[in-house]
Structure formats: C-alpha cells, structure tokens
Amino acid sequence: MVEDNSDSRIIMQAWLEHAGYRVLLADDGVHGLATARAKHPRVILMDLDLPIMDGWAAARAIKADPATAGIPIIALTALALPEDEERARGLGVTAYLAKPASLSRVLEEVERALHDTQALRTDRLASTVRNTV
C-alpha cells in the first residue's frame, strides 16, 4: 500500500491484515516504486496524490518496467473526477476507488485483481503447455 497519510495507512493495514493479507507499506511514490521492484507484491493499492513522486508517476514507472508491469494497481484516492479515473486507467490502473472507500469495496477489488492475475497466469501456462506438446 502506497499512502502518505499515516492514519489511512494504519487503518487500511489493520483491515487488510485482519482479512488475511500481508501488507507492505510505502509513504511516497519513490518508496512505492522501490518496494514494487524489490518485493513484487501481488497487488498495489496506490494513492495518486503523494509527495516526492506522485502516484501517477509511480504507476507509470511500475507499468513501464517489464519486471513489475503485471502487478495490478488499484488507485485509492481522493481524486474523484471522471477524468482522473480515465487518466489513471490510461496508465494501466486496474481499478479506481474514491476515498473514503469501504473496506468491503477495497477487499472486493483486491480479490478481483488477484483472481484476474491468477487466471491470466493459468491461461499463459496452459498456452505454453499446449504449444510445447
């Protein structure tokens, strides 16, 4: 989770850990990008209005790097205009949630992203096996 507001980080971390997830934290885009590259999380929750490197630039860099491009990014942001969502999706953001988002909605999007990523990996593996046989 990449979030600069410490209260939001603490609350979301507690919710996600209670739901059974291990949560890595970053408080700005630079640390979020570094964590993505070093730890390869299965999904990233990212605020877009971040210090040092904003979430827009961090998402762009994550999606441009072949090593991290496949990691789903869920924007969790106070920017709620339709053009913000359109811009984020243009960068490859998987889902767009306006704050305050309910825990159930966040968990729904995390589960969807994890399911979609797993399905894609399974499809790729099946395709590889079919092509090898």
Task: Label this structure with key terms.
3-stranded parallel β-sheet; single chain; 133 residues; 9% strand; 5 helices; disordered C terminus; globular; mainly alpha; Rossmann fold
Roughly what percent helix?
40-55%
The class by helix and strand makeup works out as: mainly alpha
Count every helix, treating DSSP H or I runs of 4 or more residues as helices.
5
Quaternary organisation: single chain
Rounded radius of gyration (Å) = 15 Å
User: What would you say the CATH architecture is?
Assistant: 3-Layer(aba) Sandwich
DSSP strand (E) fraction? 5-15%
Largest sheet: 3 strands, parallel
Beta strands, count: 3
Please tell me the total number of domains.
1
CATH hierarchy class name = Alpha Beta
What does this structure look like?
With 133 residues, the protein is mainly α. It has one domain (6-132): Rossmann fold (3-Layer(aba) Sandwich). The chain has five helices and three strands, in the order ααβαβαβα. It has a three-stranded parallel beta sheet with strand order 1-2-3, with helices on both faces. Mean pLDDT is 88; it is low at 119-133.
